[in-house]
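tool_log.txt
---
The assistant was asked to compare two proteins side by side. It first ran the structure predictor on the initial sequence, then on the second. Raw inputs and outputs are pasted verbatim so the downstream comparison step can read them without reformatting.
(1)
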Amino acid sequence: MERLRSYFLNGADRLVSQGYIGMEIETMFVDANGAPISLECSKRMLELLSRSGWSVSQKKGNVTTELKKGESKILYELSRANIELAVEPSIGPCIVGKARSLLQEIYAAGSFVGAEPFFEPILEVDNPSELLVIPDERDAVWLELDGRTSLGNLAECSAVQFVFDVDPGEGIAILNRLGFAIDCFLEDYPQQSLWRKYIRESRAGYLPSRYGGPLVFKDIGDYCDRLAEHAVVLNGRLVPFKDAGDFDIPLFLRSIWWYFRLRRYGSRLCVEVRPLPRREDEKFQEQLEFVLSIIQ
């Protein structure tokens, strides 16, 4: 438990927020018939981007699975048709302009190969598990643990997420403000049903609160206690937290899919806000202002 607390606060307890905001945007791409693009099509998109200012940072076999430009990244998000853009954090709301500029580069590559962005949070298909791509070892572990049918539920959905650096003494208070406002978030979050179905159908046997999670915490100790209720994924199986030993903390935290959660980025403590749907790019500023109105 002390390892968790130390992970969140060690070195960060002397810092104050500088107003950095990060952003992750998932975008489904479809062909001229409105069907999810093929793996070959998305591979060509990434190949085009790799010849126009983006460098290849990860490959799996002969497939490029991640590109970088500065600290921004382009990568697959489970589905062959779902491309994620993780935007390098910026100070203040200029993150939205940066995100839209980088997205235009992705859209241009897609247009060249007949792929158009789909501005909805769910792209319904008859067999979503057929969309799955497993770009790295982490996703391969989840495929083995969950089963293809269960994990396929998440291959249909795309979201927008924001990350805010925070004063360590304010992190829990900000999580609680967001938690009190959860009904406002869920008014437009259709992915909720797919996430619930994923948890319910997974053969791993997750606790229901592994997704969504608690919404109010007493302090950082309580936050860590609630995390420790969940098993750790080790060697393709769930191991009780108390028996897990010296496990990879960042990987464990990424497997607890709470609506709002603490993250570490370098030396900074951050709050990640997850329950936002993918809509038209024009909605980004509205989504950001909505979140800021709650946390500030």
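(2)
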Amino acid sequence: MRILSLELSTQSAGIALLQDDLKPSVHAWNQQQEAKQFLFTVLRDRFDSATLANIDHFVVGLGPGSFSGIRSAI
């Protein structure tokens, strides 16, 4: 099972890919310092195997926090 998790509602953003018994692949960054498009760069560069076809579940942080960040994650 593969789970893609996004947290974008706070200044400390993060993305994680969990795969069965493997160690999770995690990347975190400060949204104040990074461009908003940074998420897509991380998805492409670090999580290239995370395509819609092979993700079983999506997990999104729902705040409290930035409504725009929550919308972006969803």
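---
observation on (2): The mean pLDDT is 80. The CA atoms of residues 31 and 37 lie 10 Å apart.
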